[in-house]
Amino acid sequence: MTEQNELFAPSREITEKALIKDYDTLYRRSIEEREAFWAEEAGKLGWYKKWDRVLDSSQKPFYKWFTGGKINIVHNAIDRHVATWRRNKLALIWEGEPGESRTYSYHALNREVCKFANILKSMGVKKGEIVTIYMPQIPELPIAMLACAKLGAAHSVVFGGFSVDALSARIRDANSRVVITADGGFRRGKVVDLKGTVNEALKDAPTVEVCIVIRRTGHAVTMESDRDFWFHELMGLPIATSKCETEVMDAEDPLFILYTSGTTGSPKGLVHTHGGYAVYTSSTMRNVFDLREEDRYWCTADPGWITGHSYLVYGPLINGATLVMYEGAPNHPYPNRWWQMVEKYGVSILYTSPTAIRGLMRFGEQWPRRHDLSCLRLLGSVGEPINPEAWRWYHRVIGGGRCPIMDTWWQTETGGFVITPLPITPLKPGSATKPYFGHEPAIVDDDGNELAPGQEGHLVLKAPWPGMARTILGDPERFRKTYWSAYEKQGWYKAGDSGRKDKDGYFWIIGRTDDVIKVSGHRLGTAEIESALVSHQDVAEAAVIGVPHEVKGQAIHCFVILKHRKVGSRELEEELKAHVSRQVGALARPEKIDFMDALPKTRSGKIMRRVLKARALGQDVGDISTLEE
Ligand code: WT7
């Protein structure tokens, strides 16, 4: 990617109304007096009891924030609002793929969350346990998350596109006793049979005693008596009253677990907390999206990913915003579905991914042109680097040339935005621009030396922040090793991304440096796909790489050695693709499978993915002196 000299300065309109008008001064202060800055941000929330210490670094890298403080994120996301005029403000506008819509005021959201929480309570759900949620994008999903948090139980949302095995592994890891699901969801006009997947997964998840099922599609599903309960039946019981106390939590108590892919096969359950996470998501949401009372904010992410947690559910609700949520595919029934949504609900802030923009761009400008998108004020992008071409299209066609694009770089681990513009930041297409307050990112070499402008290196974060993941569930050592061991001496967080910083201090993220690939913005580990492949009876060995893809950003390319006497064929390729989809989830379906006689390995037996990648891209394979013949 060539450095862009193109600069998009903010309009007068934006600058005059912006919440933050002077980035440099506030940024400097946030670094010089980091704790004071975060204390001020924390002070904007409701606490049952104020913290004793802002930051406790005594057990780093296991940082603690706002210790001694008592809080519940739901107190901030709901309780505080229903005590004010916001009680009657819309909290959620939802549209299902078939076209029906539902709205919830903060009052209604509170009622539904309380009722759901009372049901969970009657099932014995308590502070400290982890409830697994596997649902389509319907209002009951955020309601279920909030109901768990209200009771002090941590939620573990598993994206509805994940397979039986992926789901059962996550339930087992979390030791969940209760699973919340739906009969199914709608996607591209078809029913996705979630309950069928749950039934299979539960065969391998012995800790589960209760499964609550929301009726969404109405298709026939198998319910097991004494374990499975229909949500609508429970909601009709006298125990489901609309009053429920919010549990008082320690700031450091876990709010949720979210699994993400890493270098090895087993997914990591990252742990986020009530206090720091609430402070961080609300602060970043307010300042970066320049949130105003009258905004209608739409984040297209599924709550099954961190973007949905932080910027569909918690960040917006803590700020008392009105959020828009949509269940289905962007191009169903026609490629104007999203633009229709923006116009219909008067969306003023749209937050989505480069892959979605590229996908919709392909259908042509005529689709958005049919709609009045003048309600939009601000746009956002997340998940992977946005290519300048998609950036310009998003800016010109969707934003009408007047909406700044917030290209937000962050990760499941960071809880919220780390490198991001503010509306007043002059923008360079393809750059996530500058650090958010309190952050000191840097581009360094293997030894931690800071690199000169324009040079590519590892992205590190030098200072802790309140929204950071606290640990990996059940494996603190893996947490330390994965993120904090590379620059242990310096005490820096290694993001696992490479990037450059230009002479103006703008960051340009290039991509992952580990064995993680991003397919349509979804994070997948090559090891997960490889182990799915070798679980097939005909496969002896497998290696997986990500290759550039016009719409998806990256696509999955597999290299497979078959077992003795098996021969590769088109049929077997299709069978293996279907096998991976079944094992991991449809999002992991490989683009291409090559049958090989051997894989390039080092003398110690490590597969050289770099060589495979260079070959697949028709590039020079570089130094192969360590290659075993
Ligand atoms: C990885 C984290 C954070 C929410 C969604 C993804 C890539 C994310 C950007 C961006 C360039 C980006 C990085 C990062 N990434 N946002 N604006 N520009 N790259 O969360 O699934 O944990 O993935 O996504 O490679 O490490 P995630």
How would you describe what is shown here?
- This protein is of the alpha/beta class.
- The protein contains 19 helices and 30 strands.
- The strands form eight sheets. The protein has an eight-stranded mixed sheet with strand order 12-11-8-6-7-14-15-23, sandwiched between helices.
- α11 links the parallel β16 (296-299) and β17.
- α4 (73-82) runs parallel beside α11 (306-318).
- The longest helix is centred in the first third of the chain and has 17 residues, at 106-122.
- It is globular, with a radius of gyration of 24 Å.
- It starts with 11 loop residues before the first helix and ends in a 13-residue tail after the last helix.
- The model has no long low-confidence stretch (mean pLDDT 95).
- Bound molecules: 5'-O-[(S)-butoxy(hydroxy)phosphoryl]adenosine.
- The site of 5'-O-[(S)-butoxy(hydroxy)phosphoryl]adenosine has 22 residues, from α11, β24 and β25.
Helix content: 25-40%
* End-to-end gap: 34 Å
Provide the β-strand percentage band.
Answer: 15-25%
Going across the major beta sheet, what is the strand order? 12-11-8-6-7-14-15-23
The major β-sheet equals: 8 strands, mixed
* Bound ligands, named by name, code or SMILES: 5'-O-[(S)-butoxy(hydroxy)phosphoryl]adenosine
Rg is 24 Å
Number of helices: 19
Number of strands: 30
Mean pLDDT equals 95
Spatial shape: globular
Task: Please mark out the parts with pLDDT under 50 across 5 or more consecutive residues, or reply none.
Answer: none
Structural class: alpha/beta
